[in-house]
Design goal:
The protein is built from six helices and two strands; from the N terminus they run H-E-E-H-H-H-H-H. The protein is mainly alpha-helical. It has a single domain, classed as Arp2/3 complex 21 kDa subunit ARPC3 (Orthogonal Bundle), CATH 1.10.1760.20. The chain has a two-stranded antiparallel sheet. The longest helix is centred in the N-terminal third of the chain and has 29 residues.
């Protein structure tokens, strides 16, 4: 995929479709973590979203995850607990939005990175993870306290303890693994993308 491409190639569409499907599959690879009256879902989707950002870039990575969200909101049960437009009223929908943010932030930082190192990739993966949690936590707090929650609501301390600290470490492990995998897959993705693009592109002018 060339840096100057202003439209989707057939290759881009196929890759976006692949990551959209992987996001759906990742929703079913999950672990339910009971925390008192709460039940937190830990899935492989953050791994897929961050990997998508690394390999597809900010724009295409965002659109890949956005396509997944649209499919789910149209009623196809691709989310961890089903699908449908009513999902936007669930406090946890913010974490689904967070997947798109994670792909976008990861892709943007990776495109701007001057080198491809394990430490740098891990830092970028962490930034993508934090973008995911920022969207999820803010959306959850607003929806639960002002729209669909109980009279008691949820405090910031409980929000952070239940919805952040309980899963942030295993999620970071998945994000770091996504970064490591991206380092290995990037040369292949670049070479395949260049083969399918019109004309020959110099390696220094390509991006994932």
């Amino acid at each position: 995929m060339t840096a100057g491409a202003k439209h989707f190639s057939t290759y881009d569409i196929v890759m976006c479709g692949m990551f959209t499907a992987l996001m759906a599959a990742g929703a079913y690879i999950k672990i339910m973590i009971p925390l008192g009256v709460w039940q937190v879902t830990f899935s492989m989707q953050i791994f897929v979203a961050v990997l998508c950002g690394f390999l597809m870039g900010a724009g295409r990575g965002f659109l890949s995850v956005l396509s997944y969200l649209i499919v789910g909101l149209c009623g196809v049960p691709v989310f961890a607990h089903g699908g449908g437009p009513g999902y936007v009223l669930k406090p946890t929908f913010g974490f689904l939005i967070g997947f798109a943010a994670a792909a976008s932030v990861t892709g943007f930082l990776y495109e701007k990175a001057k080198s491809r190192s394990a430490v740098g990739t891990m830092a970028i993966a962490f930034a993508g993870e934090m973008a995911y949690y920022a969207c999820g936590l803010v959306y959850y707090y607003v929806m639960f306290n002002f729209f669909v929650g109980t009279e008691a609501g949820i405090g910031l301390r409980e929000l952070v303890t239940v919805w952040f600290l309980s899963t942030v470490v295993p999620d970071f492990v998945l994000c770091a693994l996504a970064g490591r995998l991206a380092l290995r897959l990037e040369p292949y993705f670049r070479s395949v993308g260049n083969t399918r693009s019109a004309g020959n592109t110099r390696p220094g002018k390509t991006r994932t």
